[in-house]
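Colleagues,

For the teaching module next term, I've prepared a clean inverse folding example: a structure given as tokens, and then the sequence designed for it. I'd like students to try predicting residues themselves before seeing the answer, so please don't circulate the second half yet.
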């Protein structure tokens, strides 16, 4: 039911309008509020907050269908809000914070970003330099964050900062909830990207930014563990999104090669073309099964770090392999900005980078081979 409802919403409310979002560089907030009204932003959250109380497989369905929209900037805008940022409020926020913010988060009235990445630290969370010092009943944040999805137009920011530089690296990081408009917090600039054009992405600056102590998310010094723990969910979502994109690309390309004629016959009648599409379809189906299995293990409470890392590495690379061939089979049209596959090929490139680069994922797998 969730899949059918999402697919109908994407067909009716996203595909006809999203080209304009690509040009303007963000998804209109009324669209996200509409998604909240339909229950799409609270798939995993309790009914007390307006959620549907589903599990990891619900996230997979959400991510696959958003990926199938062919507008990955739109997809990542939603998934960062639902499965990468707001989770920090829900998992570690006090009852007062959750009661205050989660209903609006689920309703799409407040959009959430997670601010971990810095100019000198991405997957290496321990290397962040943004710091927070305690000052009475506040923490004072100083530092810079970059590549922050939902960073320009977001309302709430889950910010990682080092609260104790003398502690072990893994015990020095804390998470803080910072509201848009907090003195000392500024969106320095919107970032211009190769792909994901309809996703607003920002560089953030914190200069003597005073955050109430009650906005600490979880215990002080536990931020690293919260970030690493949610990486599994984030990577499942990105992997599922990638397979949704890949499937949509194959479907678009199949439609093209069934119509496009060269040398007296359609491209689909060329054995090399149809067999390549057949093999790509098999690989995508294998990727989907890998993602669904990892999600099943995760929702069953089983440590799935190995399987999730495999899925993220495999799917992030596979979606780019699919896009390469789909652009090739579109010929010159595949290189034109007016074609969906051109946009999709640009969007896919970051799937092997964001949420944990392929090389980082393979190291996680390698640690678990012995």
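(Answer key — instructors only)
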């Amino acid at each position: 039911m969730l899949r059918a409802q999402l697919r109908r919403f994407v067909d009716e409310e996203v595909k006809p309008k999203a080209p304009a979002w690509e040009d303007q560089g963000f998804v209109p907030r009324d669209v996200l509020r509409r998604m909240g009204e339909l229950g799409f932003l609270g798939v995993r959250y309790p009914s007390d907050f307006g959620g549907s109380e589903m599990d990891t497989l619900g996230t997979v369905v959400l991510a696959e269908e958003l990926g199938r929209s062919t507008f990955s900037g739109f997809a990542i805008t939603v998934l960062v809000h639902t499965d990468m940022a707001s989770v920090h409020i829900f998992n570690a926020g006090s009852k007062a914070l959750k009661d205050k913010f989660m209903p609006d988060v689920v309703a799409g009235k407040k959009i959430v970003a997670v601010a971990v990445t810095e100019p000198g630290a991405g997957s290496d969370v321990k290397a962040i330099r943004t710091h927070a010092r305690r000052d009475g009943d506040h923490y004072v944040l100083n530092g810079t964050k970059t590549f922050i999805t939902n960073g320009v137009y977001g309302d709430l920011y889950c910010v990682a900062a080092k609260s104790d530089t003398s502690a072990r690296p893994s015990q020095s990081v804390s998470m803080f909830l910072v509201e848009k408009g907090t003195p000392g917090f500024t969106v320095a600039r919107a970032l211009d990207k190769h792909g994901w054009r309809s996703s607003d992405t920002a560089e953030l600056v914190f200069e003597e930014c005073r955050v109430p102590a009650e906005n600490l998310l979880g215990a002080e010094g536990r931020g690293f563990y919260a970030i690493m723990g949610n990486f599994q969910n984030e990577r499942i979502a990105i992997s599922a999104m990638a397979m949704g994109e890949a499937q949509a690309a194959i479907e678009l390309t199949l439609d093209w090669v069934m119509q496009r004629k060269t040398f007296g016959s359609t491209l689909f009648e060329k054995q090399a073309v149809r067999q390549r599409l057949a093999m790509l379809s098999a690989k995508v189906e294998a990727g989907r099964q890998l993602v669904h299995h990892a999600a099943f293990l995760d929702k069953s409470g089983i440590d799935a770090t190995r399987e999730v890392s495999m899925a993220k590495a495999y799917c992030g690379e596979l979606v780019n392999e699919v896009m390469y061939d789909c652009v090739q089979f579109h010929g010159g049209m595949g290189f034109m900005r007016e074609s969906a596959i051109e946009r999709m090929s640009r969007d896919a490139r970051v799937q092997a980078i964001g949420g944990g680069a392929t090389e980082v994922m393979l190291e996680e797998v390698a640690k678990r081979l012995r």
